[in-house]
Amino acid sequence: MAQQEDVFKKLISHCKEYGFVFPSSEIYDGLGAVYDYGQNGVELKNNIKKYWWDSMVLLNENVVGIDSAIFMHPTIWKASGHVDAFNDPLIDNKDSKKRYRADVLIEELMAKLDDKINKEVEKAAKKFGDSFDEAKFRETNARVLENQAKREEIHNRFVKALNDNDLNELKQIIIDYEVVCPISGTKNWTDVRQFNLMFSTEMGSTSEGAMKVYLRPETAQGIFVNFLNVQKTGRMKVPFGIAQIGKAFRNEIVARQFIFRMREFEQMEMQFFVRPGEELEWFAKWKEIRMKWHKALGFGDNKYRFHDHDKLAHYANAATDIEFEMPFGFKEVEGIHSRTDFDLGSHEQYSGKKIQYFDPELNKSYVPYVIETSIGVDRMFLSIMAASYCEEKLENNETRVVLKLPPALAPAKAAILPLLKKEGLPERAREIMNVLKYNFKCMYDEKDTIGKRYRRQDAIGTPFCITVDHQTLTDNTVTIRHRDTMEQERVNISDLQSIISERVTISNLLKELEN
Ligand code: ATP
């Protein structure tokens, strides 16, 4: 664990040192849980968004996009339930004065018990070797059984407390299982209180009578309130989907995990409208499609898992998360929810407008059901950086830091490097760059030794380094170095375009999704 925390710390400083992510307002000592993306970060982020957007609106004829405003009529947030129920249960430690989410403390408690159980199993597996029967061990080992029973008891109490909205019981679980504050080490807790996560501001001048408006905490509502606009103007037939990428804002209670939990972040959401009764079939389909999208990046299937929700929101009839193994454990990156007709139905009620679809095949009107896929760009960014960050020992005993980013997502696709800063090499290198730059983000670098320049590109994940040397001037060939293997080959300049494009275009990644 300590080692993993170490990796996480290194990753955060790497993000800063190489222009991926900076703390917001840094010269004023930063602003809690708000971050800026630097020159490389913005490219990676844009590529992630493009991969998602294209997978939605290019691969699915029946999914179209919108871009709705961040400010919306305040009644929308009443109808969606956010004004009354977008709360997190918070608890303070009286000694450290640190604030926590009570539900997260309890989830961490359960995760610790899981860890204990798994360690016990691993130990036994090592001891008994091939003859080890894991299932039997789990059924019979006293320590495993004891921890399992404890975990189940906590889990049952936790789910019931959440469902009953029983804040006293949440505190009682924390007391009964002696959860301590990681900072002060004490059990001196306040009561659990609800805290609404929406930011609000005033719209209009006070003389006209200002209106309280919210910064949207999710992009989804912009889709629901445009359902009829898109359906009618696009002549969309159910089933169909509307996709949107945009900023969302949440006044998160605890924000100590870099860009995992931010107060201003970006979401990529798609709401898929289906016939009532067909929603669970579509839920299963979208689960599969979305998992494939993640796995196509090639980090290894074991990095992902589904986690079904313990507590379903009152309007949902199925919900799962796609979790990714971050340096601090498996964490939610994407949520997939079957939201029934709650949102459209509720907007019908609050707006007094009919929000229905006439289904020509069934010859009747209904409020469509909705499957939602919702993923955070920033969490996706973090998962990709974490999975790509590598420290490699080289043969000469040096270490190189390399970001093994999927080439389609890398900020720059190629670096053009003249071996020397003279003798016509820079000019030839510029000529090559001027051809490639229309299709790929390229970098030009002539400073320092070639080895140092390779390292700089490794550190930002550039898949190809193209070196221009004296031979280039005579036979129009260059060396191309591959980031992951560090292998170099001599190729014709005229082949560069196709060699690079084969590996780095998002369309090739999209084709994998259709296989
Ligand atoms: P959590 O339980 O971690 O607070 P959530 O279940 O509230 O997340 P959703 O409301 O389902 O999250 O939001 C969908 C996605 O938006 C999440 O899977 C996550 O990727 C992203 N997201 C949500 N809150 C944040 C945040 N504060 N910072 C960054 N990304 C976020």
Overall description:
The chain has 18 helices and 23 strands. It is globular. α5 (102-128) runs parallel beside α8 and α7 (142-163) runs antiparallel to α8 (167-176). 41% of the residues lie in helices and 24% in strands. The two termini are 38 Å apart. The model has no long low-confidence stretch (mean pLDDT 95). The longest helix has 27 residues, at 102-128. The chain has 515 residues and is of the alpha+beta class. β22 and β23 (488-492) form a beta hairpin. A seven-stranded mixed sheet has the order 3-9-10-16-13-12-11. It binds adenosine-5'-triphosphate (ATP).
Name a few traits of the molecule.
515 residues, alpha+beta, seven-stranded mixed sheet, five-stranded mixed sheet, 23 strands, binds adenosine-5'-triphosphate
Helical region count? 18
Helix content: 40-55%
* Order of strands across the main sheet: 3-9-10-16-13-12-11
Helix and strand content put the structural class at alpha+beta
Radius of gyration: 26 Å
Alpha-carbon distance between the two ends: 38 Å
Ligands bound to this protein structure: adenosine-5'-triphosphate
Mean pLDDT: 95
How many individual β-strands? Answer: 23
Quick rundown:
This protein is α+β, with helices and mostly antiparallel strands and 515 residues long.
